[in-house]
């Protein structure tokens, strides 16, 4: 069984070889880096010691805006061969259906890991160059964990849509809509915001901000206790969602 799965993963690697999908996360990382440079350039020297806290506060919002689109593009790039070529029937006769969805998912996850790792490296680099205050590794770890976990759940939906759609316009439209819906959800009451999956980058944010509503002056940033129980429930729900999507694709008529 392990050797069969390894062969399937190698086949997915060969199919993705000429798609240059790695350029997608690298492009979004480049945008992230340019945005971060612009943010630092607009800071006063006295604000630089709070640089890490500022980014831990703002990056979840940027992820809400950018990552649903990035994930939809990655899933479409990896799945469009089977959809455009109508080769799913042939594939299901040559390999186990149970491994097909899993291998596609793991292939897409590699590109998500590229983005998450790149964002995790970007922060210490900026901090060393611009002399931010002390970096709390626990906050960096939580930020990367949340980014990866929420992206993994969204990827499940996007891959499912890419595999059941005759073309990739619907998955891409869902990704774009997710960007806007996730952003708007940040202005909803907390119980309503928790109904919007694409906004969970901000729901699990580890840093908050105090500010004066009268003069719009930022007073400072503070660490938010991580909601471990809610996060574990989120992971459990994501696992159930993955199994549902996987089962539908396995039983899909081709």
Please outline the helices and strands.
Elements: H1 2-16, H2 23-41, H3 51-84, H4 88-94, H5 97-130, H6 137-164, H7 169-185, H8 190-193, H9 200-203, E1 207-212, E2 217-223, H10 228-250
Antiparallel strand pairs: 1-2
Helix pairs in contact: 1-5, 2-3, 2-5, 3-5, 3-6, 3-7, 5-6, 5-10, 6-7, 6-10
Key features of this structure:
254 residues, mainly alpha, two-stranded antiparallel sheet, 10 helices, 73% helix
Plain-language structure description:
- This protein is mostly helical and 254 residues long.
- Helices cover 73% and strands 5% of the residues.
- The chain has a two-stranded antiparallel sheet.
- The mean pLDDT is 87.
Short description:
It contains ten helices and two strands; from the N terminus they run αααααααααββα. By secondary structure, the protein is mainly α. It has one domain (2-250).
Number of strands: 2
**Element-level helix/strand string:** HHHHHHHHHEEH
Distance between the termini: 24 Å
Instruction: Classify the helix fraction into a percent range.
Output: over 70%
The tally of structural domains comes to 1
Number of discrete helical segments? 10
């Amino acid at each position: 069984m392990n050797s069969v799965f390894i062969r399937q993963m190698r086949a997915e690697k060969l199919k993705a070889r000429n798609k240059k999908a790695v350029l997608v996360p690298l492009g979004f990382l480049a945008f992230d880096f340019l945005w971060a440079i612009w943010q630092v350039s607009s800071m006063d020297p006295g604000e630089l010691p709070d640089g890490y806290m500022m980014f831990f506060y703002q990056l979840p919002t940027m992820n809400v805006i950018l990552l649903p689109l990035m994930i939809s593009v990655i899933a479409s790039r990896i799945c469009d061969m089977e959809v455009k070529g109508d080769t799913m029937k042939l594939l299901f006769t040559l390999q186990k259906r149970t491994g097909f969805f899993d291998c596609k998912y793991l292939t897409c996850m590699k590109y998500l890991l590229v983005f998450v790792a790149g964002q995790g490296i970007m922060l210490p680099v900026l901090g060393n160059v611009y002399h931010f205050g002390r970096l709390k590794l626990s906050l960096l770890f939580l930020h990367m964990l949340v980014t990866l976990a929420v992206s993994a759940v969204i990827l499940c939906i996007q891959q499912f849509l890419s595999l059941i759609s005759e073309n990739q316009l619907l998955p891409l439209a869902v990704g774009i809509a997710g960007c806007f819906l996730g952003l708007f959800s940040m202005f909803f009451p907390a119980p309503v915001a928790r109904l919007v999956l694409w906004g969970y980058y901000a729901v699990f944010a580890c840093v908050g901000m105090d500010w004066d509503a009268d003069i719009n002056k930022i007073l400072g940033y503070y660490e938010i206790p991580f909601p471990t129980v809610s996060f574990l429930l989120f992971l459990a729900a994501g696992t159930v969602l993955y199994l549902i999507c996987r089962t539908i694709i396995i039983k899909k008529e081709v």
